[in-house]
Amino acid sequence: MTRVQVMPYFRTVGGLRLIMVRGRDGYQKIISSCEQAEKDGYSWLWIDTCCIDKRSSAELSEAINSMYRWYHNAQKCYVYLGDVDESTFPTEQQFSKFDRSNGWPEWFSRGWTLQELIAPKEVEFFNKNWVSIGTKQDLTSTLEDITRIPYEVLRDGQVLSSTNSWKRPSVAHIMSWAADRTTTRVEDRAYSLLGLFDVNMPLLYGEGSKAFQRLQLEIIRVLSDHSILAWNPKGRLGYIGNILADDPSCFRGCHDTEEVYRYDFLDSLGVYMRQDILGRTIDRVKLMLLRRRMRSLQLSRWDVTNLGIQMTLPVLPNRKDPRRFAAVLPYRDRYGNPITLDLESPGNRAFKSTFHGRYNGFPEFRSLYLDFSRHTGRSHFDLRFDDSRTSWYGFTRCGTFPREVAGDTVRFSSHGNTLIVLVYANNDTGSRFAVELGYYLHKVRAGIYCDEYPSNPEAWSSWTGFAKQVYDTLWNAPGHGGYTNVMIDVEQCAGCCGPHEYASSLGAELWPPCTGWHELELNGISAGLDECSGQEVALGDYGDSLDGNFKRCGNIFEDMRELGVDLTDSAYRPVVSRVSSREVAKTWHCINQRAFRFRTAKNSSCS
User: Fold this and answer.
1) What pTM does this model have?
2) What is the pLDDT of residues 258-294, one digit of tens each?
3) Cα(92)–Cα(95) distance, rounded to whole angstroms?
4) Contact at 8 Å (CB) between 209 and 186?
5) Nearest residue to 268 via CA among 194, 329, 213
6) Which of 32, 233, 347, 457 is at a distance of 20 to 30 A from 393, taking alpha carbons?
């Protein structure tokens, strides 16, 4: 504790009496906070920068493990926003002013300040001149927009320790709040989250990213929350092999994952059952066993062993390769789809896999040992790029996101999927573009994304905002598994050929298993078709497909006619594509009959 009455700080070094420089920002912040506490009628004030003896590892460990509780027990906490000049709290992003912190004050980008915001019952914000600009109670809606922390959590931090899972945010949701926050020491990205999960562990500075792995294992020991495995649910980025996330940033985009409760979990597996049944009689015994296992406690029991994290999950087998399978988590993504883990099990352990295939088979519960060991050996490789010619056209490199790249070399992890976004801008023409350099499924990939001059000049001044937008778009985009998407010709059948038929040249087979869902197999690759009864889709139509129904928003050829484009020009006429037996063709086609015929032949036209 620091007494509100603060005396000048003296110390003797080498016989010289030195006084601390009063003009330093840190010193002035201590003085001003003490003056403010005295105005508010408080006698004691706790400040981390001068109330923790960091020379003592025992004191430092005790303070960090107790800090969340101290903040919660405080009568009031002060937040000093040294980069805010105005007398009001900023309610909109200001990229030109807060360029390095996504348009908001820097305080919101720090890792340690997350618990400082959530734990205290009362929080008061001050600008750089120590003028009050609002309280947490008054600014809850704005703070929710900035941090994506739910309103009820900001109002009462005790929600995080609730024993009711339906009240408490999921582990993945809490982790997502820290995804874009930074700390000086890499270990602190884990240590700063201890209080949010109400866990304790010893501090080992120097262990690097292992600290975050230890944090996850501690969480697993006290919480049966499968969302901790749902990081990066689309399998787009992150380390391959280890079932645990390497960093809080792996949970970016997990704020809208939703738990599927035990009695609804079986219904969520229905889509996989339909894929396996293919019109045949359901195995009632398997269905009964699946329902019984679903109601048991096995789904919520976890054990951390020397072989890995032992748990029981419903598994979708791969008929062609029994070593590969997908485990279904009792969570769904923002689109309502079940979240699955692609796994590979060459022995007793199951590893996270790079294989993103289609799994066929009735779900069955299986006891798994999920590997969380860290990889050894070569952990990275370097990629050199040449962007010198961009200056010929007036473009300059603004920077890189999410981490800085020095010179012309990008370092990628060889154990997983990583992504870097480089931004180039020409201020004279008001144009800029982003370059994606990534490593995905053991392949280097690159892409270019252009940005027109924004209507908001404030947004234009910030390249980081544009870079983060591109990064988030790529992060949330589904991964590509090497498929070729083309249009195929599926027409109604009068019934003379039976319920299904296939052409031997392509090995294609169309199954009409049940109303509303159909499966097409080409060269052993499965693709699904949804039935949209009574709907017709014309060439060039575009729109949204929700709940199996296509909502037409327009037609690209009609739009071109309105713009005066000559559709007879060869540059704009529809082009006939041809499919060979080496290509994988799949599509979603609107159909209204249960009997179909897939008509194609090697090198035949497909419209």
Assistant:
1) 0.70
2) 888 776 777 667 666 554 444 444 555 666 666 666 6
3) 9
4) yes
5) 329
6) 457
